[in-house]
Amino acid sequence: MKTAKLQAYSVERRAYSQKLSAIRYPLNAKILRLLICSFAFFILHFNCYAQSISSTELINNAKQYDGKTVVYEGEVIGDIMVRGDYAWINVNDGQNAIGIWTDKDLTKDILYTGSHKFKGDWIEVTGVFHRACLEHGGDLDIHAQAVRKVRPGRQIIERLNISKRNLVFVLLGVLCLVWILKQLKLR
């Protein structure tokens, strides 16, 4: 009798645990799928671009990067110099500027170039690095394959420094006073 009760209890327990497993495992599988999809989304979303190389790294290790595809990022400075179907742009990453030879169609998104009145568009250039480009007189440059605007440029609004303006007026007054006194002394 005891063994029959134990067997019945064992069968009931097994059935109950199978019911729990049937409920628990699909939830775990759904949660696991959700976690994997979320992880893949964030990894792919945030790491879809290559790491850019600084101009100092390119200049100091020019032999190592010569002829290789690089990603370089910086502010467009100076003018966009169109030469037929191509254009030269200078890109400064805050340390040095590197000349970029690109198809002129890739420069259409560039609205601002850096100067004393404007902060230039910040771009990312993917292209082939040349430490001594034979096509361009032996200059160090990058032949762009892709140009992507990272953030737009803007106009720089300079405000008049009131204290400097007042100092100019005071010095001008002192200069006029000295000139007048010198004129009176000469008479």
Question: Top keywords for this entry?
Answer:
187 residues, alpha+beta, OB fold (Dihydrolipoamide Acetyltransferase, E2P), 5-stranded mixed β-barrel, two-stranded antiparallel sheet, 4 helices, 7 strands
Short description:
The protein has 187 residues and is of the alpha+beta class. It is 43% helix and 31% strand. It has helices at residues 2-46, 55-60, 62-65, 162-186, and strands at 69-83, 86-92, 97-103, 118-119, 122-133, 139-151, 154-155.
What do you see in this structure?
This protein is of the alpha+beta class and 187 residues long. It folds into two domains: 1-48; 53-155, Nucleic acid-binding proteins (OB fold (Dihydrolipoamide Acetyltransferase, E2P), Beta Barrel). Helices cover 43% and strands 31% of the residues. It is built from four helices and seven strands. The strands form two sheets. Strands 1-2-3-6-5 form a five-stranded mixed beta barrel. The longest helix has 45 residues, at 2-46.
What is the CATH superfamily label of the largest domain?
A: Nucleic acid-binding proteins
Structural class: alpha+beta
Instruction: Let me know the average pLDDT.
Output: 84
- Helical stretch tally: 4
Beta strand count:
7
How is the secondary structure organized here?
Blueprint lengths: L1 H45 L8 H6 L1 H4 L3 E15 L2 E7 L4 E7 L14 E2 L2 E12 L5 E13 L2 E2 L6 H25 L1
Parallel strand pairs: 3-6
Antiparallel strand pairs: 1-2, 1-5, 2-3, 4-7, 5-6
